[in-house]
Amino acid sequence: MKKRKSLVLFGALLLLFTDLFPQPAPQGEKTLMLVSTAHFDTQWRWTVRTSIEEYLKNTLEQNFALLRKYPFYLFNFEGAIKYMWIREYYPEAFDTLKKYLREGRWNICGSSLDAGDVNIPSPEAILRNILTGQQFYKKEFGTTSCDIFLPDCFGFGYALPAIASHCGLKGFSTQKLSWGSAVEIPFHLGLWQGVDGSKIPAVLDARPYNRHLTGDASNNKEFIDLVAA
């Protein structure tokens, strides 16, 4: 993990949000959509205070500026604990955030109180993490998240599809398997089936979270090849 990540998760990730941000394409054409998101660890090589006073503040200011400047800019942000901090320490920003959320330009992702390990904790612990996050979202925003979003966690337990199904979640996404998985990435975009038969749409290679876009994305060869695949 790195100190701070400003990331764009490519292509298939957006399939998880088509109900929220419908962008119909002419029949027969493929469309690659990009939505910005930001991830930083709640606590890693710094204190929670640094997360609140520096990383969270910068995330809000930078993305509010982009939302003001670009009318079609969309943004995803994870972690109910971070929204709790925004409400407590940046109440004016919290009101601004809610305005963009109502407009459909700010999306809550991730479902849980905070992104965490999903290998060692029991399914009940993971369920409680999701339940706590979703209850906060419902109370504060009148809505909930629709996915399991773990861009920076190592390893994903076989119970996740069943947990997602029980929680009514619609998708799972990560990019961490590209960091040297012991086995090949099973698929880039597909259905992940759990041991109980539960299935969840999954993006297992959402591309690196530290990528920076330059130039006209419509002429980007990597993107063109991704759409054509």
Q: What is the CATH third-level topology name?
A: 7-stranded beta/alpha barrel
What's the name of the CATH homologous superfamily? Answer: Glycoside hydrolase 38, N terminal domain
Strand order of the largest sheet: 1-2-3-4
Beta-strand share of residues: 5-15%
Helix and strand composition category = alpha/beta
The CATH class label is: Alpha Beta
Q: Number of DSSP strands? A: 8
The level of helicity is 25-40%
> How many helices does DSSP assign?
6
Residue ranges: pLDDT <50 for 5 or more in a row?
1-22
**Main beta sheet, described?**
4 strands, mixed
Q: What's the oligomerization state?
A: single chain
Examine the secondary-structure arrangement and name the CATH architecture: Alpha-Beta Barrel
Which geometry do the CA atoms define?
globular
Radius of gyration: 17 Å
Describe this structure in words.
It is built from six helices and eight strands; from the N terminus they run ββαβααβαβαβββα. It is an alpha/beta fold and 229 residues long. It has a single domain, classed as 7-stranded beta/alpha barrel. The strands form two sheets. The chain has a four-stranded mixed sheet. A four-stranded mixed sheet has the order 5-6-8-7. α2 (80-89) packs across α3. The longest helix has 22 residues, at 48-69.
Give the tags.
4-stranded mixed β-sheet, 7-stranded beta/alpha barrel, 229 residues, disordered N terminus, globular, alpha/beta, 6 helices, 8 strands
Secondary structure layout:
Blueprint: E1 5-9, E2 35-39, H1 48-69, E3 75-78, H2 80-89, H3 91-102, E4 106-109, H4 123-141, E5 147-149, H5 160-166, E6 171-173, E7 189-193, E8 199-203, H6 221-228
Helix pairs in contact: 2-3
